[in-house]
Amino acid sequence: MTDFKVNGLVIKEAETGEYDKLLTILTEKHGKLYVVGKGVKSVRSRHMASTQLFAYSSFNLRRKGSYYYITDSDLLENYYDIRDDMLKLALASFVCDVTCEIAKEGVEERELLKLTLNTLFAIAKNLRPLEMIRASFELRVASDAGFMPDLTSCRVCDEANPDMMCLDIMDGTIICDKCRKNAFSTIVKDTFYETGTPKPISIISLSVLATMRYIISVRQERFLAFSLGESEHQMFFDVCEKYLLNQLERGFYSLDFYKSLL
Questions:
Q1: What's the predicted TM-score (pTM) here?
Q2: At what angle are helices 233-248 and 130-142 packed, to 10 degrees?
Q3: Which of 8, 72, 88, 141 is the most exposed place for a label (fewest CB within 10 A)?
């Protein structure tokens, strides 16, 4: 048996009995941990609040085999405001689902934990419109997970700031509209998955490109500190969503539910 203390965010929960839960907790030093909470669903349990989804808590854990068991816990932050709004709840669930998908076991996940906590705080406190928070998180989490797109310049002519760019959703590179239309260098002549199927691209304006460059390069605590004209919001939302889902090669039911509420 191994006992240790750790701070962690509950990013997933599953019922395993009348009063028990199997929790997935993201920690700074140990990454993703699978933790058994015995009796934590009981209203009489002193661990009930600290083991809810979105709870950031201090845990005393005891390891037995592949799992950890809670011996003590203290709630540090519960992001209570998220639970007052169904749209916020749905978005926060999606954020945690993405984090759970990306997080690894047994490795340091300091940046991922910080990003997830910052995003949940932004949702809870209405720091930005929810769609802006979602798109910014999608792009930043993909970049931090090793899928950072190369947004420096057109991969063909090296132009850095044309009027319009296209992002290659799979390769994470950009190509200017002029080069894309050139029959000898067009990106849509390439194939994606099977012969004859064009690779997915997203057309982005210079303002959206500048915003994306900011998000992937700025200090994490300021990844939401930007402005973008309202007329370009939807373009920004669409490209960030497509980029993350294509890089992870999967969709999320929680995202579908969130979008159904908009």
A1: 0.92
A2: 40
A3: 72
